[in-house]
């Protein structure tokens, strides 16, 4: 019986050793594949060729760092230090990734610009409609507003530039229109305080007005994040304010459904204050709501 146990233990040990050997072999094959990929990237690839001819010193520095890391990885692998070699190859791939960003592929950049242009055009056209609507409510009409006319002129300019393929210039024109409309809509919304309540013929009209303002502020939030690019911590704060505003909006709609428009308006104004705080957290200066709760 003892001999049988010894045989069983021996067989188990051999199986374990075989499994370890198989795992080590698999690890080495994966390392060799990654090494071959990095070698192609840093010595014989379109990325390497672009960096060599682009004249971007920082990109060249990153490429040389990647090559040095690749050389260290090969030495470590030959010495059997596979984990350290893996770390060097990973670092080399990050370095070549940074270099690629500094010298982007022309085709990829063209695609990115086209996508940016399309998204911006849609955003700016939405902002124009929102700005025009609130301008008409606040001032009796949009005629003669320089900001609105300037935004429309930039949209026309962007379309004219995009047609022959001048996408970078078209994007710049739309970005200027976007910033101007954001600032104008933000200021216009902030000017709509409680004094407007005297102009409403019925509580339901005041509720509709406050709901419109609330939704306009909500629409500004993703634009502000995309334009101002706040830090991750600030984005988290923005999201919390937006979530709080959403709770007020749900409550306001429920109250309005029950014809309790005064309470619904109070809920909306509280929610709008949260959205103003969200915009401020994103980096947009916001006129505070003087009549909000």
What does this structure look like?
This protein has 293 residues and is mostly helical. Helices cover 83% and strands 0% of the residues. Helix 6 packs antiparallel against helix 7. The longest helix is centred in the N-terminal third of the chain and has 42 residues, at 2-43. The termini are far apart. The model is unreliable at 12-20, 192-198 and 289-293 (pLDDT under 50).
Summarize the helices and strands and which ones pair or pack.
Elements: H1 2-43, H2 46-54, H3 57-78, H4 82-102, H5 106-139, H6 146-162, H7 167-190, H8 203-228, H9 232-257, H10 261-282
Helix pairs in contact: 1-3, 1-4, 3-4, 5-6, 5-7, 5-8, 6-7, 7-8, 8-9, 8-10, 9-10
| Helical content class | over 70%
* Terminal-residue CA separation: 85 Å
Please tally the β strands and state the result.
Answer: 0
Radius of gyration: 30 Å
Helix and strand composition category: mainly alpha
Task: Tell me the series of helices and strands, N- to C-terminal.
Answer: HHHHHHHHHH
Shape: elongated
Q: What integer is the average pLDDT?
A: 80
Largest sheet: none
| Model regions low in confidence, pLDDT < 50 over at least 5 residues | 12-20, 192-198, 289-293
């Amino acid at each position: 019986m003892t001999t049988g146990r010894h045989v069983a233990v021996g067989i188990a040990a051999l199986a374990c050793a075989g499994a370890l050997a198989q795992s080590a072999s698999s690890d080495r094959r994966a390392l060799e594949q990654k090494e071959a990929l990095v070698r192609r990237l840093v010595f014989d690839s379109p990325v390497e060729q672009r960096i060599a001819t682009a004249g971007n010193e920082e990109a060249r520095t990153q490429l040389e760092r990647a090559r040095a890391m690749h050389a260290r990885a090969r030495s470590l692998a030959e010495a059997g230090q596979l984990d350290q070699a893996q770390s060097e190859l990973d670092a080399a791939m990050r370095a070549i990734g940074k270099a690629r960003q500094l010298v982007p592929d022309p085709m990829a950049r063209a695609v990115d610009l086209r996508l940016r242009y399309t998204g911006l055009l849609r955003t700016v056209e939405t902002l124009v409609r929102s700005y025009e609507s609130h301008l008409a409510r606040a001032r009796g009409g949009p005629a003669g507003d320089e900001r609105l006319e300037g935004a429309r002129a930039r949209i026309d300019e962007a379309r004219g530039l995009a047609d022959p393929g001048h996408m970078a210039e078209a994007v710049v024109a739309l970005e200027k229109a976007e910033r101007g409309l954001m600032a104008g809509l933000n200021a216009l919304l902030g000017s709509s305080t409680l004094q407007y309540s005297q102009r409403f013929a019925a509580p339901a009209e005041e509720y509709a007005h406050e709901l419109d303002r609330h939704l306009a502020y909500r629409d500004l939030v993703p634009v502000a994040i995309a334009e101002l690019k706040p830090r991750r911590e600030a984005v988290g704060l923005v999201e919390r304010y937006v979530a709080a505003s959403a709770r007020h909006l749900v409550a306001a709609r429920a109250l309005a459904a029950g014809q309790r428009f005064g309470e619904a308006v109070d809920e909306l104004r509280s929610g709008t204050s949260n959205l103003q705080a969200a915009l401020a957290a994103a980096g947009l200066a916001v006129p505070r709501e003087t009549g909000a709760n």
